[in-house]
Design brief:
Helices cover 4% and strands 44% of the residues. It contains three helices and 49 strands. Strands 1, 3, 4, 6, 9 and 11 form a six-stranded antiparallel β-sheet that branches. A hairpin with a 2-residue loop joins strand 7 and strand 8.
């Protein structure tokens, strides 16, 4: 056997020995990854979707003209493909995205591609010739059910791009995308339950203020010829969502020139979560709001004023609701006036979440998303009444102003009143300088009717438009009612009366009213556990007061009625002729008061009002009071009497001679 044959034999023996030995080496297969080619899978659903070849029979190419042998293609306004990957254990997706080289030279419009795990956007990228071939590496959530690739296109003068996903593959065995959500849904997937001027991305190319397309979202736009309200309402009841996220922007195609003004609002049922006015200079707003527990519907809306060129379009990109953790935002029950329902009205229009009653415009020209507009007419004062007998609300609030379109020139005068069962809770005369007022009034607990009245005097140019922006009724927590036993009233004679309230919490504020509801006094926040409130005079006769408590951050309690006694009767004053004064030398001076009643007490004051002596209760009809020294010169003392069951009399001045 020659040397070469020996070497060959040794090599073969070594190879098989190593291979056999390798079977007993520690295995790392459990940690290794494996992959599945995207092009080898069957789609679950698709549109505008191609494999290997375009409809023309041409193979895919990348943006540089190189043939793509392993790829899938997309062409059309909204092409997509969806794969059912539930239970497959895929941990990530890898691949490349490019434009086919045959459709890039010239104006082929705009294209964007998005990769989704169910409704969760994993990756989104605008595509262009200069962008080349884009690498995609996206981790997947562990419990993914469907994987989708979505393309949106906007035509250019030569047509549309052809989009290619090259060398796509799912990876097994790697780490998953860690997400804190227990549920996650796109509003577009949920679908609008009612809408007006709503256009989903599946039917329309959506652009943000920068001109970038989005693969998922919707737009709101009112007709060019009128402006007004557009909205979309989504039913989310029972799904436990506690967060809404989206990016809001004006569409770049409707900002250059006069396209008017827009204000955007987001509501959970009737509760306002978000409000912002958008202009051509407003950048993309990433909005994240908490959804209150028990929310039935989310409404996203815009109110718009038409400009010379039409109206703006507002886009909502990637609008998703999710449940993160177990906590929820707590908000009070809130109802728009239309939800409460009006009894009767005149010259009042409401813009709510689905009805346009007029643009809510404040005195500074800014816009609101909901509210009331009131203007008198030939039938008289503008007003609206609401039946509160069975709705449980106890508060009304709004942003009060005059419409800026009715300020320049003579529009007369306007005064607004808010009433509960014809009792005026709030009244305000409105002028050009009033501005925007945040008005809030507590509604008495047993009120049956709430009324808004605007009394106007017409000017040469007509009437003001009075605006109550974001007007709502609410049910807010109320302070606990005081018990009458904790309140005492002293109805003093000839001095301030005193109301004392015990067993209070630090920070409590006490209010005292007369029986007609007029406020008599308000305490400062208490610093201990009681309050003493001084009132100039309750009156001489007995009567009742109403006393309420307001705990910090809570509405005022219902008042408790507390009786008080009549003022005590003053004792008869002492006549000067009843008094004799001996101004003695070198011994105590003596004051004698005659014609008294049994148990009368006499008090003696100097001329400055300082008490210098008090008698014991008299046992007969007179008293003698010894005073160490009145002084050597002549002067005056003041004498008063206190009779049984009566208060001290007025003081009588009595002269005395020099020693």
């Amino acid at each position: 056997m020659n040397k070469q044959a020996l070497k060959t034999m040794i090599a073969v023996i070594f190879f098989f020995t190593f291979a056999a030995y390798g079977n007993f080496l520690p295995s790392e297969a459990s940690a290794a990854t494996s992959s599945v080619r995207l092009s080898s899978l069957s789609s679950d659903s698709e549109e505008g979707f191609y494999t290997s070849y375009w409809s023309t029979g041409e193979k895919f190419t990348d943006v540089y003209g190189k043939t793509v042998n392993d790829g899938i293609g997309f062409y059309g306004d909204s092409p997509y493909v969806t794969y059912n990957v539930s239970g497959k254990g895929y941990s990530s997706f890898q691949g490349k995205v490019t434009l086919d080289s045959r459709y890039v030279n010239g104006d082929y419009g705009k294209s964007v591609v998005g990769f989704y795990a169910d409704d969760r956007l994993l990756y989104e990228k605008p595509l262009s010739k200069s962008g080349g071939v884009v690498n995609v590496n996206a981790k997947l959530p562990k419990n993914i059910k469907h994987f989708s690739i979505v393309v949106k296109e906007k035509d250019g003068s030569k047509g549309q791009h052809f989009v290619v996903v090259q060398d796509g593959q799912f990876i097994k065995g790697g780490s998953y995308l860690s997400v804190p959500y227990s549920s996650y849904s796109s509003l577009v997937t949920i679908g609008d339950s009612s809408s007006q001027g709503y256009y989903a991305s599946s039917y329309n190319a959506l652009e943000d203020i920068n001109g970038t397309l989005t693969t998922n979202g919707f737009s709101l736009n009112t007709p060019d010829y009128e402006g007004g309200l557009s909205y979309s309402t989504f039913s989310i009841e029972g799904n436990g969502y506690n967060t809404l996220e989206t990016s809001i922007s004006l569409d770049s195609r409707y900002v250059n020139g006069d396209y008017g003004k827009s204000v955007v609002g987001i509501y959970a049922d009737d509760y306002l979560l978000y409000e912002k006015e958008y202009t051509s200079k407003t950048p993309i707003q990433k909005v994240k709001v908490s959804i209150p527990k028990g929310t039935h519907h989310l409404t996203l809306l815009t109110n718009q004023i038409r400009g010379a060129k039409g109206t703006q379009t507002v886009t909502f990109s990637q609008p998703v609701v999710s449940k993160t953790g177990s906590s929820y935002t707590s908000v009070p029950y809130t109802a728009l006036p239309s939800t409460i329902g009006g009894n009767s009205s005149n010259g009042a229009w409401e813009t709510n979440l689905s009805q346009f009653g007029g643009i809510i415009r404040f005195s500074n020209g800014t816009l609101g998303t909901s509210g009331l507009i009131l203007e008198s007419d030939y039938e008289g004062d503008a007003y609206a009444t609401y039946n509160l007998s069975d709705v449980g609300v106890n508060y009304f609030k709004a942003k009060l102003a005059l419409d800026s379109a009715h300020l320049q020139g003579d529009y007369g005068s306007s005064t607004i009143q808010l009433l509960a069962d014809n009792r005026v809770l709030y009244s305000k005369a409105l002028t050009k300088s009033t501005g925007i007022l945040n008005v809030g009034v507590q509604i008495p607990s047993k009120a049956q009717e709430f009324k808004i009245v605007v009394k106007q005097k017409q000017g040469a140019k007509g009437y003001h438009n009075v605006v109550l922006g974001n007007a709502v009724f609410q049910k807010l927590p109320v302070s606990s009612k005081l018990s009458a036993s904790r309140v005492s009233v002293v109805n003093n004679y000839n001095q301030n009366d005193v109301v004392t309230v015990k067993s209070l919490a630090k920070g409590d504020v006490i209010k005292v009213y007369n029986t007609k509801g007029a406020l008599l006094a308000t305490s400062k926040p208490v610093t201990s556990n009681y309050a003493k409130i001084s009132i100039k005079q309750l009156g001489t006769a007995k009567g009742n007061i109403l006393v309420s408590r307001t705990t910090s951050g809570v509405l005022e309690s219902d008042p408790v009625s507390v009786p008080y006694a009549a003022e005590p009767v003053p004792s008869p004053s002492v006549a000067a002729k009843q008094v004799t004064i001996e101004n003695n030398k070198n011994k105590n001076d003596l004051i004698t008061v005659k014609s008294l009643s049994k148990n009368d007490v006499i008090k003696v004051y100097n001329s400055k009002g300082s008490l210098i002596a008090t008698s014991k209760p008299v046992a007969s009809n007179y008293t003698k009071i010894s005073i160490k020294q009145l002084g050597t010169g002549k002067g005056n003392v003041l004498i008063s009497r206190i009779s049984t069951g009566k208060v001290e009399s007025t003081k009588t001045s009595v002269a005395y001679k020099a020693e």
